[in-house]
Each structure stands twice: as C-alpha cells, then as structure tokens.
Amino acid sequence: MEKADLNWGELPFSYIKTDCHLEYYFRNGSWDEGAVVADDKISLSVAATCLHYGQECFEGLKVFEAPDGSAQIFRIEENARRMIRSAQKIHMSPLPVDMFIDAIFKLVKLNKRFIPPHGSGASLYIRPLILGISSLIGVKPSTDYLFMAMCTPVGPYFRTGLKPIKLIVEEDIDRAAPQGVGDVKVGGNYAAGLRATIKAKEAGYAEVLYLDAGNKEYIDESGPANFFGITHDDKYITPDSNTILPSITNNSLMAIAKDMGLTVEKRPVSVKELPNLKEAGCCGTAAVITPVKSITYRDEVYTYGDGETVGSISGELYKRLTDIQNGLVEDKFEWTRKIPLG
Ligand code: PLP
Ligand code: COI
User: Fold this and answer.
1) Which of 62, 112, 166, 185 is catalytic?
2) From atom 6 of ligand 2, which residue's Cα is the shortest distance away?
3) What percent of the chain clears pLDDT 90, i.e. is strictly above it?
4) I want to staple 118 with a disulfide (CB 3.0 to 4.6 A). Which of 65, 110, 216, 235 is the partner?
5) 77 CA → ligand 2 middle, Å
6) H or E segment at 284?
C-alpha cells in the first residue's frame, strides 16, 4: 500500500486525520469487542463524567519504521501499565494490558500508510484514552467507559528538534499538588498547566520548569516532559518526585546512561543545583530529548553548552535511544516490538 501523501520531513506535532480510530465500550462490567470507526467525531451524553469532572486519562507512544520497512513500537507494555495506574487513581475502569496491546497493533495495521518513512525523523504517534461516559450529574465515578485508540503522524514536539530551548522556572503556578494526581496521565493536569505554558511562551521561553508545590525548592518537571541534567563530573541526574509523571523515556535514558558508564542519580534535585550542570534536557515520548540552553530562575540565567548544538552526552543519549527506536542497532534492552502489518 502506498504511503499517505504528506511532507514527512516537515511534520509538526499536531493532528492529521488518519483512516480510522478504534472504540471499545465498557458496560455492565466488561469491555466489548471494539469497533473500527472512520469518522473522527464521537457522540457522548451531555452529562458524561469526563466532560464535567475530568474523568479521563490517556497515553502517548510512538511507532517507527525500521530500515527494512517493518514497524516497531517502543515499550508498549510500560504504557499499558501506566494507563492502568492512571485509570485506577481517578476511579475509572482500567484496560487489561493485552487488550491495550491488541488494540494498538490493530490500529497501526489499519493506518499503516500513515507510518512515516524510515529516516524522515517522524513517527506515528499513538494516543489511547479512556473516558467516563455515564450520564451523572453528582460527583461520582462513571459505571460506563469508552476506550479509544487514535493515531497521527508527527514530527518533534518542540519545533526546534535537537536545537536547544530556553526554560523558565515557574514559582507562582503549580501543575500538581503534593498528594494529588501529578504522577498519572490525566487530562486535568494539562489543563492546569496551560496558563503557565502560555505565560512562559509570551515571555519568549519554550516551556516552564515546575518546582515542588510544597516547598518550591526541588525541580519537578517541565510541562510536557521530565527533566534531566548532566553534571561536570558526568553524572546523569533526574528528579525523584511523587508529583511528576514517571517517564518511560527517562527510565530508558537512565538505562542507556548506565550502559555508557555514567553514574545515574534519581533523587530530589534542588533548584540550587542548576548552576552545577554542564548539560540539561527535557525528555519524553513527544519531546524525545530536547536540549536546554538556558534556565531562568528569578534574576539568574543559567546557561548550558554553546546555545546552538546539543551537548556531547545528551547527543550520545539521543543517538542511542533513537537508533534503538528506529531499528538501527540491536535492541539489547528488548524495548521494541514488531507490529505485523500484513
Ligand atoms: N511528563 C509529562 C507531564 C508528560 O506529559 C510526559 C509525556 O508523556 C512525560 C513526562 C514523558 O513521559 P514518557 O517518556 O513516558 O512519554
Ligand atoms: C507525550 O510525550 O507522549 C505526551 O503525552 C506529552 C504531551 C504533552 C505531548
């Protein structure tokens, strides 16, 4: 089958309609067989709990084309397990891991003409989501749920790709409360962060860096991604916090960093450590590794690298990660799975 007619090398991180998405309903205590739906509009009760009380969680993962034309997906079981944790935390019916994987494999096969060609730098981004759909007006969990899996071909989240971005430490707006839901992927967290992101963009920054909401001393994460730094003595350091999303990309980078012989420290990282870093970066499925050239904190601006190019360690981490994702090297961590397309 011919690929869709798209400018693959220039894809932004935004929605392009594909051939179909999948819909599965949870009613009377069980999930149905699912349906393939071409129309990308859905129909919901005006009283659905997802609309009024934010009973929604989602995931994000990527499919890459290997040099031989096969399709491979990165760490799908981890996303499946994280979606279970997200659903459970906001009292929604979780989706079994096998059902999550089967749905995504089917979705990718049906939309295979939208898998960006190997070498284009783009990927097929998969968005599974669960919505509470019972018509309730009191604040309580739905009994019925809709699981959908959709996909769209994307380029890098930050338009700059591997060109370093500027961050600003946000002290006046919190993304997540200490005992809240910052550690799961629920839509409300992103709505909560919009005003901080917009404020940062208006001031000329690509994104914010949040601090822990309790003490405003430790680094949490950026709006759409985790944060890591490389110290002058070549340690990979990344915040340990119960108010950030446990990033699958960050977890992978920690393993790659160890494999490169770096010491890895996942621990509370004080904002006072920012001047001690030689490289800094954001990491996530959408962000991959986006290098950070400066972080503004109150009246200080801490700078990293030459401001134009990715630092040598971040660059090596990026290469090793994306080489595995794109099937260019042996996947010794067994992170990728082939998706049958025939
Ligand atoms: N933090 C937030 C708030 C995110 O939305 C994401 C993206 O999923 C990440 C971190 C990175 O997580 P992952 O690497 O699993 O995509
Ligand atoms: C991802 O990286 O997959 C995400 O969901 C982050 C999102 C803000 C684009």
Assistant:
1) 185
2) 224
3) 98
4) 65
5) 17
6) strand 277-284
Cα 28 to middle of ligand 2, angstroms: 32
Torsion of CA 30, 31, 32, 37, to 10 degrees: 150
Residue 119 has, within 13 A of its CA and on its CB side, a CA count of: 3
Contact (Cβ atoms closer than 8 angstroms) between residue 82 and residue 59: yes
**pTM higher than 0.85, yes or no?**
yes
Given a cut of 80, whether residue 149 has pLDDT beyond it is yes
CA distance 295 to 165: 9
Distance in Å, CA 2 to ligand 1 centroid: 32
pLDDT in tens, 75-109: 999 999 999 999 999 999 999 999 999 999 999 99
Ligand 2 atom nearest residue 223's Cα:
8
Using CA atoms, how far apart are residues 304 and 113, in angstroms rounded to an integer? 40
End-to-end CA distance of the chain: 10
Q: Kindly report the protein residue whose alpha carbon is nearest to atom 8 of ligand 2.
A: 224
DSSP readout, 159-210? TTTTS-EEEEEE-S--SS-TTSSTTS-BHHHHHHHHHHHHHHHHTT-SEEEE
**Cα distance between residue 128 and residue 130, in whole Å:** 7
Q: Which residue has the tokens 């967290």?
A: 189
Q: What is the CA radius of gyration of the chain?
A: 20
Which residue lies with its CA nearest to atom 9 of ligand 1?
Answer: 225
Atom 7, ligand 2: which residue's CA is nearest? 224
Closest CA to 60 of 94, 91, 83: 83
Helix (H, G, I), strand (E, B) or coil at 321: helix
Find the 29 Cα to ligand 2 centroid distance in Å: 30
